[in-house]
């Protein structure tokens, strides 16, 4: 019935209100809110955005050069040809299913000798 749903929601609402009051009474939350407020005041005073603030406190060398943070380079592809079947596979990093099955069947050193 609709009234049961209403009562459940009302009970949940009271429980959430109680949790909010408990959170608001905590000193660590008060300090965080005060800190956030102070930061927002400084940002408004100097007409700065959050992005500019993050840039200011991020890695100095990247901020000074204007470069993006370095990303991991892509692995170079290696090709292997199975002399028994003539099958050729391209491997980046060694996790391909065919490459792993070849290693299990023939051994790692043998498979590495098949590099093209």
From TrEMBL:
Residues 71-81 have a biased composition (Basic residues). Transmembrane segments: none annotated. It comes from the Bacteria. Residues 58-82 are annotated as: Disordered. Coiled coil: none annotated. Residues 79-114 form the MvaT DNA-binding domain. This is MvaT DNA-binding domain-containing protein. It comes from Oceanospirillum multiglobuliferum.
